[in-house]
Write a structure and sequence with these properties.
Blueprint: E1 2-10, E2 19-33, E3 49-52, E4 59-63, E5 68-72, E6 78-82, E7 97-101, E8 104-109, E9 114-121, E10 126-134, E11 141-145, E12 148-155, E13 158-163, E14 170-173, H1 182-188, E15 191-196, E16 201-206, E17 211-216, E18 221-226, E19 234-237, E20 243-246, E21 255-263, E22 267-274, H2 275-281, E23 290-294, E24 301-306, E25 314-316, E26 319-325, E27 329-337
Antiparallel strand pairs: 1-2, 2-27, 3-4, 4-5, 5-6, 7-8, 8-9, 9-10, 11-12, 12-13, 13-14, 15-16, 16-17, 17-18, 19-20, 21-22, 22-23, 23-24, 25-26, 26-27
C-alpha cells in the first residue's frame, strides 16, 4: 500500500503566509489490465485513453497502435473488443479520445476525421457500432456530459466546443490560453479536457501553459487558476507559418501537463512532468510526476509540489486508474481512500 500525506495549503489573504496541514490519502494497488505476453486481446501497443461505461463497472480502453477499442471488467477480465487499423467502417487510423455517456460510447479519430459511436451489448458481451459521423474539425481532446460531447480545439477564436451528437449543433466558448498571433493561440490550446456531470463542469488545461480553467456546461467561466512552479514556455510565430517554442527565461527545462482528474472530496488533481522525459519515455511510470490540487468550487490552490502520488488518469468512486508503460502498456488499478 502507498500511503501519501498531501500538504494541504489553506489559502488565507495574501498578506498572511500559507498554513500547511497533512491530508492522508492511501492508494492500494489492487489489480492491473494488460499483459506483456499471452492472450492477444490483453496485449496493448499503446493505451491512449480509458474511461468507464456510465451504466456499469466496465472499463473501456483505446489502443491506437492496434486500432482497437476494448472492454474489461473492474477485475481486469477481458470482455470484448472491436476495431482494427484502417479507414473503413469500424476501423481506426489514429484514435485519440474516448468518452461515454449512459450506454453510448464515443471514439474520436482525427486521422479519419470521424466520431464513431458504439453501444455495449451486455447480453451478447459485445461492442456494437451504431453510427459514424464526420468530426467538425481536428481537436486535441474530448469528453462527454449530459448528452453532449465537448472538444478542446482552437477554432474561430474559441477553444471549447459543445457538440450535440444527434443534431450536429455546435456551440463554442472559451478564449485561448495565450492571446496574440493566431498561430500562438492555436499552439497554446494543445492540452487536456475533462467533464464532470456531478459538478456540471468542463475542466481544461494547456500542455505548456500553467493555466487550468473550469467552465459550466453552458460555457460560463467559473474560475481560472495558475499552476505553481510551472514555468510557461515561450511561444512565438516563426517565418514558416508555424511557431517556435522555447523554455521560459532562466529555466533549464520545460514542463508539460500529463493528467487532469476530478477526485471526489479532494479536488481537481493536476499532474505534470518534465517535457523531455515524457517525449522519450512515452508515458512510462518511471517519469517523475508532480501534482497540484485545486478546489473544484473556486480554483483555490489546496496543495502543490507533491511527488509521491501515482499518475491518475481516471477516478471512479473508490477506484483510480493509471495508464503506463512499465515495461509494457497496461493499466494499474488502485483503491484510494482518505
Amino acid at each position: 500500500r502507498l500511503l501519501v500525506f498531501l500538504p494541504l495549503l489553506l489559502l488565507p489573504p495574501l498578506v498572511r503566509p500559507l498554513v500547511a496541514q497533512d491530508l492522508p490519502v492511501e492508494f492500494e494497488l489492487v489489480g492491473t489490465i494488460g499483459v506483456s505476453q499471452g492472450d492477444p486481446e490483453e496485449e496493448f501497443g499503446q493505451i491512449k485513453a480509458l474511461t468507464r461505461l456510465d451504466t456499469s463497472d466496465i472499463i473501456l480502453i483505446l489502443d491506437p497502435y492496434r486500432g482497437r477499442l476494448s472492454a474489461f471488467d473492474r477485475d481486469g477480465t477481458f470482455l470484448a473488443s472491436t476495431g482494427r487499423l484502417g479507414q473503413g467502417p469500424g476501423e481506426f487510423r489514429v484514435p485519440r479520445a474516448l468518452s461515454s455517456m449512459r450506454e453510448r460510447i464515443f471514439v474520436y479519430d482525427p486521422a479519419n476525421i470521424r466520431i464513431s459511436e458504439y453501444a455495449w451489448n451486455a447480453e451478447g458481451a459485445e461492442l456494437a457500432l451504431q453510427r459514424e459521423s464526420r468530426a467538425p474539425f481536428e481537436a486535441k481532446g474530448m469528453c462527454a456530459a449530459e448528452d453532449r460531447l465537448y472538444f478542446l480545439a482552437y477554432h474561430e477564436g474559441r477553444i471549447v466546443h459543445q457538440l450535440d451528437p444527434d443534431t450536429g449543433e455546435l456551440v463554442s466558448f472559451g478564449s485561448p490560453f495565450r492571446s496574440g498571433h493566431p498561430n500562438v493561440e492555436w499552439s497554446s490550446t494543445n492540452g487536456l479536457i475533462g467533464c464532470n456531470e456531478e459538478t456540471r463542469s468542463v475542466y481544461v488545461g494547456g500542455f505548456v501553459t500553467p493555466i487550468v480553467r473550469r467552465y459550466d456546461l453552458n460555457g460560463e467561466l467559473i474560475w481560472e487558476a495558475e499552476i505553481p512552479d510551472f514555468p510557461a514556455a515561450r511561444i512565438t510565430p516563426n517565418e514558416y507559418g508555424g511557431v517556435r517554442m522555447r523554455m521560459a527565461e532562466g529555466e533549464d527545462r520545460s514542463l508539460t501537463l500529463v493528467s487532469l482528474a476530478m477526485v471526489p472530496t479532494v479536488g481537481l488533481v493536476v499532474q505534470y512532468a518534465d517535457a523531455a522525459a515524457v517525449r522519450i519515455r512515452a508515458m512510462e511510470d518511471l517519469i517523475d510526476v508532480r501534482t497540484s490540487i485545486f478546489s473544484l468550487d473556486d480554483g483555490s490552490l489546496l496543495a502543490s509540489g507533491i511527488t509521491s502520488l501515482p499518475r491518475i488518469d481516471l477516478v471512479d468512486g473508490e477506484f483510480a486508474y493509471s495508464r503506463g508503460n512499465d515495461p509494457f502498456p497496461r493499466v494499474k488499478i488502485y483503491r484510494w481512500s482518505r
